[in-house]
Every structure is written in structure tokens, then in C-alpha cells.
């Protein structure tokens, strides 16, 4: 209202243009039906603008690998990649940013939803023009967040493209993200050898048909990152995980969606702090570890679109904290997995809600 009051005394016939990202602001200003919604530029137009500014009136040749960088440039111009609300809440939980409040009779997921809506109302997030159920952050907000985070968070591309960055600064890092490439070899992750207490390893996909990750990253590098809480291989053509993944005792969030994983090592069942296990779209996954019931803190097991899964492991009723399980597969005797009893199934206490 303080913003609106100076405009109430304008001369007759005056016109005022107010720009805002929030429709509620336009209503408050009395715009009524005189609202013009500006749609974001298409990826092609966005890239043309970048190309003109990068090479117009500059004696500089277009680099030979420019085409291969096109998708990454477009992704950066659009701010952060799309992100479902539920995904962010689960990541916040894994990082310890949401604490249970039993005295208010609210689950962590409900608290996270409250937090998200508060940030959305303050325009820290905005709905995607591509998908109404997903959200992005404006590049200005991204820049502010990066400034506030300092050396605690980094995007791998920013560090690799900065000549003045010293490797020593990686020792302070806690959260790392990067745009996954079509072929991600171990050389790309050399800087991670300097990271001692990394909590987040999060690739951000630009939807290549297939992303390939060096086996040395999964088998040699990641087991050394013993303080990880968030680990994602989303979209990589990973076929197996090392047995040493069981040493990541602090891990709370493991995303293997759209990988070619065939099975999970039994050591996965020793990740007692694990809250979220995402297996969505793992078409080749045939079985879950027999002792999955040991993951007593598991809250979300996403096994949707896992067509090859033969049966669920026994005694899942012990997972009393489980909040979501999209697909329960009842096996046959030939699958050599004991069929859970109706009592076990009932004990899962799966809630049917919009979040699940």
C-alpha cells in the first residue's frame, strides 16, 4: 500500500506502467483487466541474443566447440533448471534445514510445504512458463543466493571457467552442483579431490538423450566423500554402484532415477539415515535389497515406472516412517522373495495426498 499511495494523486489522464513478477501486485495496484503478461523468450531467441552480444563487433572467432556448449549456455540463461516443490522439500530435509515439530503435529514434509509457499509468496521462486507444476529462480535471485552462500556452495562450471580461483577454496565447500554433460569423464571432477566435507553432489540435467559418467567417479571418487548427505546420478547411464556406498553413513537422499541400474548393493541397507530413495524410471531394476527393512528412517521410496521389478522385499512393515510408495509389487514364489502379508502392507501407513 505504501508503494501505491504516491500514484493516487496523479493528474487526470495520467498513465502508469507497473512491472512485477507477482500477479497479486498488479491486482493491488488496481490494474484490473489492463494486464499484459510477458512470456519468456524462447530458447532459440535467447541464444540469438547471447550470440549477438558475444561476437558482434568483436574480432573473435567462434570457438570450434561452440555448438556443443549451446545447450549449457541456454540452460544458464534460463536461471536454474526446473524443480518439482516436492523435490526441493526432500533436499531441504536431507540437508537438515527442516526439523520435525511433533508438538505442532506436523510432519517435516508439511513444514517444508509451508516454507516453500512462504518463499514463493516473496518471489524467491516463480512458476515455470513451461510447466505449471514446476518452478524456477530468476537469475537475479540466483546471483543473490550465490553471493550469500560464498564459498560454501559452488557450481562446477563457475570454478572451472574462472582463472583466478585457487583450488584451496574448495576446502570450504559443502554443496556442489553442475550441469551434467553427455560424457562426464573423471578429469572434470579433479577439483573434488580438494573437498574434504562435501555434503551435496547434485548434477543438473539439460536432458541429453543419454548422459555417461566415468566409472572412476562412482567407484573411486565418491566413496571418499564420506560426509555426503545428498547424492544424485539422475539421468546417467550408470549400471551399478560400488559396495563401498555403504560407507556414506550420513547419506539422507539418494537419487538414481532414469539410470540403468540393475540392482542395489546390499550395503545400501546400512544407510540408516537415508530418508529418500528415488528409483523412478529405472527400467532395468529387477529387485530391491532383501534387507531394505533395515532403513528405519526411510520416508520416501519412489519406485514408479520400474517395470522390471519382480517383487517387494519382505517385512516392509518395519518402515514405520514411510510416507510414500507409489508402486507395491506382489511377487510369486518363483521370484524367491517372500510375499508380504496383508498385515505388513497395512503397516506401511502410506498416506494418499497431493505430495505423494
Automatic annotation (TrEMBL):
Domain (Disease resistance protein winged helix): residue spans on this chain: 85-145
Protein name: Disease resistance RPP13-like protein 1
Superkingdom as given in the UniProt entry: Eukaryota
Residue stretches making up the Disease resistance R13L4/SHOC-2-like LRR domain: 213-325
Record gene name: LOC110745145
Segments forming domain NB-ARC: 3-57
One of the protein's GO biological processes: defense response
MF (Gene Ontology): ADP binding
Transmembrane segments: none
Assigned keywords, A-Z: Plant defense, Repeat
PANTHER family associated with the record: DISEASE RESISTANCE RPP13-LIKE PROTEIN 1, PLANT BROAD-SPECTRUM MILDEW RESISTANCE PROTEIN RPW8
Amino acid at each position: 500500500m505504501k508503494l501505491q499511495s504516491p500514484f493516487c494523486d496523479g493528474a487526470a489522464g495520467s498513465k502508469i506502467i507497473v512491472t512485477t513478477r507477482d500477479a497479486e501486485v498488479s491486482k493491488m495496484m488496481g490494474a484490473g483487466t489492463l494486464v499484459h503478461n510477458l512470456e519468456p523468450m524462447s530458447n532459440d531467441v535467447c541464444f540469438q541474443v547471447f550470440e549477438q552480444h558475444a561476437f558482434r563487433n568483436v574480432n573473435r572467432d567462434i570457438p570450434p566447440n561452440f555448438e556443443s556448449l549451446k545447450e549449457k549456455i541456454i540452460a544458464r540463461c534460463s536461471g536454474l533448471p526446473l524443480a518439482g516443490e516436492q523435490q526441493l522439500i526432500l533436499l531441504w530435509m536431507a540437508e537438515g534445514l527442516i526439523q520435525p515439530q511433533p508438538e505442532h503435529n506436523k510432519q517435516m514434509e508439511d513444514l517444508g510445504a509451508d516454507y516453500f509457499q512462504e518463499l514463493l509468496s516473496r518471489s524467491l521462486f516463480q512458476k515455470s512458463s513451461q510447466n505449471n507444476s514446476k518452478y524456477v529462480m530468476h537469475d537475479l535471485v540466483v546471483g543473490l543466493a550465490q553471493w550469500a552462500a560464498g564459498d560454501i556452495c559452488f557450481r562446477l562450471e563457475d570454478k572451472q571457467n574462472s582463472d583466478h580461483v585457487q583450488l584451496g577454496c574448495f576446502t570450504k565447500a559443502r554443496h556442489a552442483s553442475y550441469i551434467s554433460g553427455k560424457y562426464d569423464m573423471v578429469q572434470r571432477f579433479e577439483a573434488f579431490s580438494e573437498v574434504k566435507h562435501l555434503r551435496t553432489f547434485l548434477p543438473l540435467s539439460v536432458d541429453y538423450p543419454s548422459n555417461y559418467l566415468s566409472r572412476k567417479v562412482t567407484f573411486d571418487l565418491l566413496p571418499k566423500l564420506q560426509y555426503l548427505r545428498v547424492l544424485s546420478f539422475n539421468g546417467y547411464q550408470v549400471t551399478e554402484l560400488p559396495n563401498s556406498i555403504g560407507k556414506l553413513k550420513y547419506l539422507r537422499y539418494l537419487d538414481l532415477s532414469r539410470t540403468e541400474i540393475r540392482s542395489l548393493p546390499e550395503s545400501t541397507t546400512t544407510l540408516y539415515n537415508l530418508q529418500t530413495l528415488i528409483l523412478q524410471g529405472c527400467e532395468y531394476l529387477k529387485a530391491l535389497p532383501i534387507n531394505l527393512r533395515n532403513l528405519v528412517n526411510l520416508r520416501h521410496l519412489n519406485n514408479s515406472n520400474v517395470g522390471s521389478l519382480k517383487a517387494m522385499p519382505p517385512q516392509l512393515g518395519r518402515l514405520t516412517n514411510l510416507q510414500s510408495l507409489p508402486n507395491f509389487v506382489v511377487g510369486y514364489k518363483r521370484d524367491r522373495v517372500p510375499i508380504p502379508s496383508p498385515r505388513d502392507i497395512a503397516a506401511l501407513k502410506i498416506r494418499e495426498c497431493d505430495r505423494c
